Model the fold of this input.
Amino acid sequence: MTELLTRGARMRDKRTARFCAALIAHEQALWTFTTTPGVPATDNAAERALRHAVMWRKTSYGTQTEHGNRAASDC
Done:
């Protein structure tokens, strides 16, 4: 994987090169789940924890006033 990312970081396409370089910079963190027991391979728990708030935001179009902000934070 490191070899492929290194090759990608040298590509002419700047977007691909930046993406690969960013992955190389975080490579150790990307593979933590393979070496540390108890670290999940996915972020499903975080995604599920945020789901209610995201669905509310999508269906309510957020808030438009300070009063609305306070009311929404009470939920």
